[in-house]
Amino acid sequence: MSLPALQALRDHQAGTELTVLTKPGLAPFWALSSLPRRVLTLPAAGASLRPAVRALRELDFQTAYVLPHSFRSALPPFLARIPRRIGLPGHFPRDFLLTETRPPAGGPGREHQIHEYLDLFFPGENRRTFVPPRLDVPTAARDHLRAQLADLPRPWISVLPGAARGTSKQWPAERYAEAAAALVAQTGGSIVTLGTKSEHAPCQQVAAAAAPNGLNLAGATTLAELAAMLALSAAVLCNDSGGMHLAAAVGTPLVALFGITDPARTGPLGNRIRILQHSDRRSRDVPRTSAAAQAALRAISVAEAVAAVADALGNAT
Q1: Which of 67, 82, 141, 154 shows its CA 20 to 30 Å from the CA of 105?
Q2: What is the pLDDT of residue 230?
Q3: Which residues pair with 86 in a beta bridge?
């Protein structure tokens, strides 16, 4: 979500040195971006912030932009005494840690979360255009995945049946399995399922439905290898998830299945994206379990998903 705004900031302030302070689990993600000169990591939850604060002080930063709304994210630049600490408005006492809060301007055509970050970096400009996020996939990771896929017929279609947010964002695994079998039958290609180690079971269910042209890589890839697999894919079918945004950022034709989450506010950014959604209800955030969200997802048929992926394959360049 933040990549387009950071790109605009670097382009606007040529020569400005960008450093990203992030959670340890997201450090591999930032390694795929050429934007930051360095990446610093926060300690794990519950651990002391002293090492991060010490690193910030030693680097003598002049300005810190705090993108998350949390108290903990604003605390390190405050303790490091960075002179300018700018963030989106939140709640007391978080805002006390900032020297300036910049509320998003909003307005028609600016509903997406990316505009909050553009308003954070460029207050008063009401920017409407931006360069979609792009990540650089390491050549070594691409080569490693090509070797793993050598015996699988093309086109390679990646399927991500999981979502960290829970069942409120997950199309049923049995429907993914039906779609996988249909896509193999139609295209003669292969299905590669991707996800975390905890998502191995639904990913295996989907890969098994595509046998012998199915491969389950859930929990078996680094983040760089996950990005490489998505980049090598002819198309991706997935839920509203982090993997969805990663697929969009590497430029692969994407079919994303939405329940009641509002794609106009938090959807993937790019030009090769198809959204399937059957709900008039729109919400930026949904609980991990939501009957309304699950019902909206179940309203998406296997035939619709298969047709959308087939169309994406036909229009891929």
Answers
A1: 82
A2: 98
A3: 65, 100
